[in-house]
Write a structure and sequence with these properties.
This protein is mainly α. The protein has a single domain, classed as Ferritin (Up-down Bundle), CATH 1.20.1260.100. The chain has six helices and no strands. It is elongated. The chain starts with 6 loop residues before the first helix and ends in an 18-residue tail after the last helix.
């Protein structure tokens, strides 16, 4: 069958992809942050020396869902670009990249491994640059959706590096256990 899809059919195909990719990425990203106890409510994180440029906690709560939404829309555009040259590689690298993204919070907030987390975020930034270039060959709009993400990753990498440098004992920094007095 050699039928050409109408513009309306193509839009609906994109919408169907987006209805899967956007919630999936937002939910998985939020879940990883939740199980990692990421953010300012984390006692370990609260005890770290942080750079003056560290935004208030609410900023992270706004920025990450918006970035995950943009990532979901970008990959939906690529998934919808059937038969596009380089599509398979772009999708595979995006999936690998998202695994790195979802690993960062547990490495940093749960395991308290600030240096390994820094290397993960550098790998995320490098892979995001490659993915953006691949997306641009397929759908320029998908590539543009990744630009704010790359800017944020660069900023987050700088925060991570500064925290790692200023907290050489971060992995050993434990929050004190609750004390009880048992006496007789």
């Amino acid at each position: 069958m050699n039928e050409i899809a109408s513009p309306g059919q193509l839009r609906m195909s994109f919408v169907r992809w987006a209805l899967v990719t956007v919630p999936l990425i937002v939910i998985l990203g939020s879940f990883m942050g939740y199980i990692s106890n990421s953010g300012y409510d984390n006692d370990w994180f609260a005890r770290l020396a942080k750079p003056d440029l560290t935004p208030p906690g609410w900023v992270f709560g706004v920025v990450w869902p918006v970035l995950y939404l943009m990532l979901g829309l970008a990959i939906a555009m690529i998934l919808n670009a059937r038969r596009a040259a380089g599509r398979g590689l772009a999708i595979a690298l995006f999936v690998a990249h998202m695994l790195l993204n979802f690993a960062w919070s547990p490495i940093f907030f749960r395991l308290h491994q600030v240096w390994p987390a820094f290397f993960v975020i550098v790998a995320m930034l490098a892979s995001a640059i490659v993915i953006t270039a691949l997306f641009a060959r397929i759908r320029k709009a998908a590539a543009w959706l990744l630009v704010p993400y790359m800017v944020w990753l660069g900023f987050a990498a700088m925060l991570n590096l500064t925290i790692a440098r200023d907290n050489p004992d971060a992995a050993a920094l434990h929050t004190p256990a609750a004390r009880t007095q048992i006496g007789g």
